[in-house]
Write a structure and sequence with these properties.
Blueprint lengths: L9 H13 L4 E5 L2 E5 L5 H11 L23
Amino acid sequence: MAGRGETLDGEAALQAAIARLAAGDIVAIKGIGGFHLACDAGNPAAVATLRARKHRPAKPLAVMLPTATGLPPPLRR
């Protein structure tokens, strides 16, 4: 698995990211505008670590879901 600066691409990158997210780690994903940090939003320890690293103790974080089914009704649009 990649770590600490090693770059992966293709299927190897996807599988490594899945494994790291499942383990509660934070992964960096390169996008057009820079890097995005991601963690498992259902893992409170991972979210706390991400908040600490980004210095965002209370500011909202983006959450991506495959569907709105898991959201409380007031948040579904």
